[in-house]
Design brief:
Chain lengths: ~325, ~325
C-alpha cells in the first residue's frame, strides 16, 4: 500500500452559460514514503488544480471525482470532514509566492505558533520553543521568530513557509513552484533544503513545477501533464534519455541547457481548449510524429514496463522509437 | 543603417548610477547624511552590430538599471554612453528623440506591455505615428505587415485585427517585438524577454531574437537565466552588486569560468539530464543590499577563496584565462 494514491482524479470548473472546463482528466499516481515525485507541465495543464484537489482546496465553482487514498483510506470522499484531519497534519503544502502564504501583520513566529496551537501540537512556551526548532531546521536563526515577513528576503520567506508546513510533522510535503520567483543561488539553497528534509525526515515530496531541470535535480520520478492529463510517467532518467511520449521529448528539447549542444526549439501551436470535447490525442496538433489514428482516437496511459507509462499510440507500433 | 565596420554600436564606459535613499522627515531634520543605493558602480562594456550581449546576475545586481541607463531612461551620476559613435550621455530629450527610434526596449511581460484596447495593427502602427514615419496610411500598413512577418506572425492578415486577449503569451511577445522592429532599430534592449512565457514557446522568441541579431541588430539581453544566456548570447557579462565581475565570449565564460562568483553561479544551475546533476557550490546568504557595499572586493564576504587582501583591494577587470577578450575582476586569479 502506498503512502498516497490518487486514482482517476477529475476536476471540472463551472463556466458561464452552463459550460464546463475539464481541467483535470483522469489523473492517477502514487507516492511512497520518502519518495520525490515531480508533477511537470506548462501553465494551464492542470498540475496546480490537481494538488488543490488532493488537499480539498478547490474553489466552490469546481467539482471533483476520483479517489485520494492516504495509507489506503479515501480522504476526499467525505469532503471537508474527511479532509480536515489530514490537511497540514499528513499533507502540507508550500506555495510559490511565500509572501502570500504569510500574514504581513503578524510576526513569522506567531504564525507558526498559531498552526501548532490550532492543531493542538503544543501551546504557549512549548509552542514557541518548537517554533524556534522549526525555524532552525530550515536554516533561520530562532531569534528571527519575532520578525515580520517583510523583514525577510524572498528566500527566507520561502524557508519560513516551509517551516510552517513542517509544523505538524507531515509525511508528505507538496511544493507548488517553490523556487520559481527566486534567484538561481537562492533557488539552489531551497532545493538543497528540500533535499535534506526528505533525506533526514523521510518526507515524501510532490514537486509541482514547469521547470524540468529543477525536477531533474531533485526528483526520482516525474509525471508529465498536458491538457489536464498525465501523458507520461516514469523515472526521471528514463524520461530524459528515452522519452516515450513526443511531448516529453519536445519539452526537454525546448529547455535550454547550460552545456547542451544545439539550439532549443519551441513546440509550435498551443494546447487545446479544455472547455470543449477533445477528439483524438490532445497533443496531435503540435506533435511531430502524429499519424491518422492520433486525430481520431484518444490514447490512454499504458504501462510500458520498467516502471514507466505513456499515453501515445506510437508505443503500440512495435520497435519504433518515439 | 550606417555601416561602420567594427565600431561598437553601443559603448558604455565607467557608468555609475545611484539612487538616493529616502531619509524621511526625521532623518532630514537630524541632518543625517544622504545615503545612496549604489545600483551601478563603474561598469564598461560594448555591443557590436550583429552581437548579443547577455547581462546576467541575481536580482538587485544592477542589470536592469544598466539597461535603463543605456536607453537614457535613468540619469547616470558619471560615465559615458556612446551610441553609434556619438556621445549620448547628456543629450537632452529633443536631441534624443531621433535616437529613440534606433534603440528599442522589449519588456518582460507581454501581458502588461500591450494596450488591451489596441488591435495588433494599431499597436504596431502606433510607434510609426509617434515617430512620424511610414508615410501614407497604406504605406504604414505595408510596414506593419512586414514587421508582423518578420516576427513570424504569418500570414499577417490573420493577426492584424486581433486584440491582445485573443493571443497567446508567445504571440503577444511577438507583437511587442514587431512594434519595435517596425521602426528599423539598430539596438534592441530585451529585459528578461521570455521569463513570463511557457517553456515550449520561449525558444521560439529567443530564436527570433537570434535571427534579428543575424540580420545585424545589436542586442543587449538582461536575464537571470544562465542556461538561456549560454545558448543564445555571443558574450556574457556577469554582474554582482553593481559591478561586472566577469565578461567574455559565452563559450569561455560558461565553459571556463574564472571568477569565484561565476563559478558558484554556474555550479547551481539545474541541468536537464539527471545524470548531470550538479556538484553544487552553494553560497550562503544573499547578496548584501546595494546601500552598504562591502569594502575591497564587494564579493569577499561570500567568497569561498577570499584572503585578507580581498577586504582591502577593489579588483579591476583584467584579462584572464583562455582568450584575449575574457576578463575577470579577482586578485586571486
Amino acid at each position: 500500500m502506498s503512502l498516497l494514491t490518487a486514482e482517476d482524479l477529475n476536476v471540472w470548473f463551472d463556466l458561464d452559460g452552463g459550460r464546463e472546463l475539464h481541467a483535470v482528466q483522469g489523473v492517477g499516481f502514487s507516492l511512497e514514503p520518502g519518495e520525490r515525485l515531480g508533477l511537470v507541465g506548462e501553465s494551464g495543464c492542470g498540475k496546480t488544480t490537481t494538488v488543490l484537489g488532493l488537499l480539498g482546496l478547490l474553489p466552490p465553482s469546481a467539482s471533483i471525482s476520483g479517489r485520494v487514498l492516504l495509507n489506503g483510506v479515501d480522504i476526499v470522499a467525505g469532503g471537508e470532514e474527511t479532509m480536515r484531519p489530514h490537511r497540514w497534519v499528513d499533507l502540507a503544502i508550500v506555495f510559490q509566492g511565500a509572501m502570500n502564504a504569510l500574514n504581513p501583520v503578524k510576526t513569522v513566529g506567531s504564525q507558526i505558533v498559531e498552526v501548532l496551537e490550532l492543531h493542538e501540537r503544543a501551546r504557549g512556551r512549548d509552542a514557541r520553543a518548537r517554533t524556534g526548532e522549526l525555524l532552525e531546521s530550515v536554516g533561520i536563526p530562532a531569534n528571527r521568530a519575532e520578525r515580520f515577513p517583510h523583514e525577510f528576503s524572498g528566500g527566507m520567506r520561502q524557508r519560513a513557509a516551509i517551516a510552517m508546513a513542517l509544523a505538524c510533522s507531515p509525511s508528505i510535503l507538496i511544493a507548488d513552484e517553490p523556487t520559481t520567483a527566486l534567484d538561481v543561488m537562492v533557488q539552489a539553497q531551497i532545493l538543497e533544503l528540500l533535499d535534506s528534509l526528505c533525506r533526514d525526515f523521510g518526507l515524501a515530496l510532490l514537486l509541482v513545477t514547469h521547470d524540468l531541470p529543477v525536477v531533474a535535480e531533485l526528483c526520482d520520478r516525474a509525471a508529465v501533464m498536458y491538457a489536464g492529463e498525465i501523458v507520461e510517467h516514469g523515472p526521471m532518467d528514463a524520461l530524459y534519455h528515452e522519452p516515450r511520449h513526443p511531448y516529453t521529448r519536445l519539452l526537454f528539447a525546448a529547455t535550454p541547457d547550460l552545456h547542451g549542444e544545439g539550439v532549443p526549439a519551441s513546440i509550435p501551436g498551443t494546447p487545446p481548449r479544455l472547455d470543449q470535447p477533445l477528439v483524438g490525442c490532445p497533443f496531435h496538433t503540435r506533435c511531430d510524429r502524429a499519424f491518422a489514428r492520433c486525430t481520431e482516437e484518444r490514447p490512454v496511459l499504458k504501462e510500458l514496463g520498467d516502471d514507466r507509462s505513456a499515453a501515445c499510440h506510437l508505443n503500440d507500433v512495435v520497435a519504433e522509437v518515439v | 543603417m550606417s555601416q561602420n565596420g567594427n565600431r561598437p554600436l553601443i559603448a558604455v564606459e565607467d557608468l555609475v548610477v545611484r539612487y538616493p535613499v529616502a531619509r524621511g522627515l526625521g532623518g532630514m531634520l537630524a541632518r543625517r547624511p544622504q545615503r545612496f543605493v549604489h545600483a551601478v558602480e563603474g561598469i564598461s562594456f560594448s555591443v557590436k552590430r550583429g552581437e548579443l550581449l547577455a547581462l546576467v546576475g541575481e536580482s538587485g545586481c544592477g542589470k536592469t538599471t544598466t539597461a535603463q541607463a543605456v536607453l537614457r531612461l535613468v540619469e547616470p551620476v558619471s560615465g559615458r554612453i556612446e551610441f553609434d559613435g556619438g556621445d549620448i550621455t547628456t543629450l537632452q530629450s529633443r536631441a534624443l528623440r531621433p535616437l529613440r527610434r534606433r534603440m528599442q526596449l522589449i519588456y518582460q511581460d507581454p501581458y502588461e506591455s500591450l494596450d488591451p484596447r489596441l488591435s495588433v495593427r494599431a499597436a504596431v502602427e502606433e510607434p510609426l505615428q509617434i515617430h512620424g514615419l511610414g508615410g501614407s496610411k497604406t504605406e504604414r500598413l505595408e510596414r506593419v505587415r512586414e514587421a508582423l512577418s518578420v516576427v513570424e506572425l504569418n500570414p499577417p492578415e490573420l493577426f492584424l485585427e486581433r486584440y491582445p486577449h485573443e493571443l497567446s503569451g508567445g504571440q503577444r511577445q511577438r507583437v511587442a517585438i514587431a512594434a519595435s522592429v517596425v521602426l528599423g532599430p539598430d539596438l534592441l534592449v530585451a529585459d528578461e524577454p521570455v521569463s513570463m512565457l511557457d517553456v515550449s514557446v520561449r525558444a521560439g522568441i529567443l530564436n527570433l531574437l537570434d535571427r534579428l541579431r543575424e540580420d545585424g541588430l545589436g542586442i543587449l539581453m538582461i536575464t537571470h537565466d544562465l542556461s538561456t544566456a549560454a545558448r543564445f548570447a555571443d558574450r556574457i557579462a556577469v554582474m554582482y552588486l553593481g559591478r561586472i565581475v566577469e565578461e567574455g565570449p559565452a563559450r569561455s565564460v560558461v565553459g571556463n569560468p574564472q571568477h569565484p562568483y561565476t563559478k558558484a553561479l554556474l555550479s547551481v544551475v539545474p541541468r536537464r539530464d539527471p545524470r548531470e546533476r550538479s556538484k553544487r557550490e552553494i553560497l550562503s546568504g544573499e547578496a548584501p543590499d546595494a546601500v552598504r557595499i562591502p569594502s575591497g572586493c564587494r564579493f569577499h564576504p561570500r567568497c569561498p577563496i577570499a584572503i585578507a587582501d580581498c577586504k582591502r583591494i577593489d579588483p579591476a577587470l583584467e584579462r584572464v584565462g583562455d582568450g584575449a577578450d575574457h576578463a575577470a575582476a579577482c586578485i586571486r586569479l
